[in-house]
Amino acid sequence: MHIKPRMENPIESKTLLTKKQWEQKYKDNTVQKKKALVYCEKQFGLVDGKTAAALVRHSEIYSIVGIIDSSLAGKDAGEELGEEKNGIPIFADLENAIESLSYTPDCYIYGKAPLETFLSKKERLLILEAMINGMDIISGLHEFFTHDPELSHIAALNGVQIKDIRKPPALKDLHLYTGQISQVNVPVVAVLGTDCACGKMTTAVELNKTLNQLGIKSVLVATGQTSLMQGAKYGVSTDALISQFLVGEVESSVVQAFKNESPDIILVEGQSAISHPAFLSSIGILKGSMPDGVILQHPPARKFRCDFPGLAMPTPESEIKLIETVSKAKVIAITLSHEDMNEQEVLTITEEYELQFRLPTTDVLSYGCQKLVQALSDQFPNLGHKIKLENSKFFLNKQDKGNLHLEGIDEFISA
Q1: Helix, strand, coil shares of the chain as percentages rounded to 5?
Q2: What pTM, to 2 d.p., does this model score?
Q3: Which residue, 294, 362, 292, is CA-closest to 332?
């Protein structure tokens, strides 16, 4: 069952920006974005369709104009994610999409994240079809299309580009660990999880947006292909790196974000789980970013590891213990994925976890980031002071516009 998400307050979403500034910012972003179709055949709304779902929810680079999934053709992408209708249609195939849209989008994004690394013959033909129609190809697979002679040839013939998001930097540009992470003197918070595809990136993106809307300069460091597709300025797809450079590349991304942006806080996206036997990225992320705090994402209704039906899910308790053993960082909050849970079940689990772990617990897609902002304020006094200052400005701005309702001026708004 899905949970009806909270309603956005259009005034609160414009925190610290005038109406004219916000509209101009929206206009500028819209103009710069490329129109994109996202291929997600028979996986949209499922675990392996997480890339498509993430792009539907947020993208700073692409304007998503449709999803391709013949099993859901004719439906609305937002509603299929259990959220509000967003006007993004789902099409049966590329031909149907172009005919319905009455134009050819700029890009064709491969929006699935399967455990397998290679395209099927059918999906390869669909890539060729998209290029013949003049669409750039965006892929997050381990199979690099730019290394494929046929695909590269067809791209050149049709004047289109291929972008392999997971392709690591050239060897000469890779970084080893240096210890420069010790120079970062603002809070670094990693959003880790208990499994793959459980909402770590979504929580990191939502928290990053909320902090920036509050006037807190937050920078998100990406560690996976999906968040890079969404437009993260810093980061690398960690699972495509030679292991020797994993820690160093994460460290370098955080250090560059710190030096170039002068942020108030840096958020680092997690991958998989520290405890997962099949993947190493989270350990490298934890070591490379040396976080000052960790937010732990967990899907309470999930019984077995994603794509591994023989591996039982860990408990939040065991994952917290492992994280705090491997690093000096403490888990400061728990966030939930509400997959296969109804609203009452989420509320019950939230209450149970807060009693058991003495940590603020929330589902950001349904209830926003207020508890996380409060946790950051409590954990990092300097950041907390600025959050309160900026939050007060928000309410005072409302007062200047004739809104005299100032109850809750010391509380944080949901965003």
Answers
A1: 45, 15, 40
A2: 0.85
A3: 294
In degrees and rounded to multiples of 5, residue 134 shows phi and psi of 85, 20
Rounded distance between C-alpha atoms, residue 395 and residue 15, angstroms: 9
CATH of the domain at 223: 3.40.50.300
Q: Phi/psi class of residue 104: alpha, beta or left (left: φ > 0; alpha: ψ in -120 to 50)?
A: beta
Angle at 280 between CA 244 and CA 209, to 5 degrees: 100
Which residues, listed in sequence order, are joined to residue 222 by a DSSP beta bridge?
Answer: 235
Are 143 and 228 contained in the same domain? Answer: no
- For 23-88, give the secondary structure using H, E and C: HHHHHHHHHHCEEEEEECCCCCCCHHHHHHHHHHHCCCCEEEEEEECHHHCCCEHHHHCCCCCCCC
Give 247-287 pLDDT, tens digit per residue: 999 999 999 999 999 999 999 999 999 999 999 999 999 99
Q: Give the Cα separation of 71 and 39 in Å (integer).
A: 12
300 and 375 belong to one structural domain: yes
The model's pLDDT over 319-332, given as tens digits with 9 standing for 90+, comes to: 999 999 999 999 99
Residues 6+ apart with CB under 8 A from 360: 332, 333, 334, 354, 371, 372, 374, 375
Tokens of 265: 């806080």
Round the average pLDDT of the chain to a whole number and report it.
88
The Cα diameter of the chain in Å comes to: 66
Closest CA to 362 of 220, 227, 208, 203: 203
